[in-house]
Amino acid sequence: MSRLYLNHSSVGEGYPLIVIHGLFGSSRNWQALSKLFARSFRVITVDLRNHGDSFHAPEMGYALMAGDVLDLMDYLAIDSAHILGHSMGGKLAMQLAQMAPERVNKLVVADIAPVTYGHSYHDIIAPVRAMDLSLISSRKQADSELEQGIPDQRIRQFIMQNLSIQDGKASWKLNWEAIQNNIDTVIGYVNIAHWSIHNPTLFIRGGASGYVTAQGWALIQQHFLQAELITLDKAGHWLHAEQPAAFAEQVVRFLQR
Questions:
Q1: Mean pLDDT across the chain, nearest whole number?
Q2: Is residue 13 among the annotated active site residues?
Q3: Candidates 86, 223, 237, 240; catalytic one
Q4: Is 237 a catalytic residue?
Q5: Between the N and C ends of the chain, which has fewer C-beta atoms within 10 Å?
Q6: What is the pTM assigned to this prediction?
Q7: Which CATH number fits domain 8-117+187-256: 1.10.3860.10, 3.50.4.10, 3.40.50.300, 3.40.50.1820?
């Protein structure tokens, strides 16, 4: 059986920077920022398994997903790269640095810590899986169907970026069944008890986000021996979308230093 590689796109030239999206996201979420990063780097954005245009698979453990990224690096003949990951992608990036530190130059982790989070995402997954796609023929109709279960319009719009409608037929790019079956792993604790990560690592958190707490930062400092922390004031968990210019400035400054 031939090996499955992550769907990806590349822009720019220079030292490679691999960008890894978060849960329910895709490489499309990073198109605008990739253009900024491409002024200095060769930027490779990926769709993780069960996301975007990548393959669907029943398992979503962090070691498996990090292996997917390493396989892609081998396919692209990339010996080492800077790695940038947001949220779930940030946990994956940390796992990658632990598994193959020689393949990672610098690491940027956006608004996540290696801890277990309490959000089960049932309030998003359940309404989506309850929707009968055979009755959906337009994005407006899908939005109306999801509105009661997901009243926050910003979240609905984010989720619906994964909805494909072709010739009046709707389908999800996300593998909702696999995500639901693996959600405890996705939100769970990354076992860093025996980690000693020497790669220079920048943690960027949103000032209005609660994902990287003082306790989380203290844990990070124990295991990431060259860790720095920057807070973007007034930004939430999607800090790269809320303050893209400030986010890009901090990332490029760190990587070029």
A1: 96
A2: no
A3: 237
A4: yes
A5: N
A6: 0.96
A7: 3.40.50.1820
